[in-house]
Amino acid sequence: MPDSGKMLQVAGLHAWYGESHILHGVEFTINRGEVVTLLGRNGVGKTTTLKSIMGMVVRRKGSIVYEGTETIGLPSNRIARLGIAFCPEERGIFASLDVLENLMLPPKVRDGGFSVQQVYEIFPNLKERLASQGTKLSGGEQQMLAIGRILRTGARLLLLDEPTEGLAPVIVEQIGRTIAQLKQNGFTILLVEQNFRFAQGVADRHYVMENGRVVDMIPNAELESRMDKLHEYLGV
User: Fold this and answer.
1) Above 50 in pLDDT, residue 70?
2) For the packed helices 139-151 and 169-184, what is the interaxial angle rounded to 10 degrees?
3) Residue from 191, 232, 216, 211 nearest 25 by CA
4) What is the mean pLDDT of the chain?
5) Rounded to the nearest 5°, which phi and psi values hold at 187?
């Protein structure tokens, strides 16, 4: 029987891109309602981990159990319908579509998703830019749109890849407030983030990756006292 407190359990996860072996037995768990980060240097496998959970990596093996269902053999469309959504680093905003069209593009996969009005309440900037084409938005507005789009689907586990990358500090603060609000609304979030100071402000726990493996888990309350070790992991 699955652990009733665990939303996601990853064990012995290996993944390849062609002949390149990227993940080497990744293991971690996420409890319902948590915000958890994957920290580590560039190229250690953080994004590949998210894509493997989402079924976007063709060659993978191991175990990924979501809400008691083994997903390692499922295609990404089936995984999405279980309640997992992925927001990529590049955001995937369609230039030829306006804000509302981009927002409405993903299908609703489960009940309980946000209405368009609820998305506007979290991101009022988007309501003001409804008729703007996707590429006319600022980087921060594109990130808001990318997150708002997956909230409509009904997913309960959100995989966010570098949501603050390249954004102005004031927008980073807004994204942080949004993540806190989503947690209050019952969402579970797995976050890949280079900015560990941002991660410290939003997360419950941090998994550190090196060379395609999880090598440490740091509760957020211990992050400050273990900062020297974290700097060593991150090479800063």
Assistant:
1) yes
2) 10
3) 211
4) 92
5) -75, 150
Short-list 69, 34, 42, CA closest to 53: 69
Could you report the per-residue pLDDT of 126-136, keeping only the tens digit for each? 888 888 888 78
Closest of 193, 194, 181 to residue 148, by C-alpha: 181
Contact call for residues 105 and 94 (beta carbons, < 8 A)? yes
Q: What is the pLDDT of residues 95-114, one digit of tens each?
A: 889 999 989 888 888 888 89
| DSSP codes, 167-207 | --HHHHHHHHHHHHHHHHTT-EEEEE-S-HHHHHHH-SEEE
In angstroms, the CA 208 to CA 214 distance is 6
Nearest of 71, 87, 59, 235 to residue 153 by alpha carbon: 87
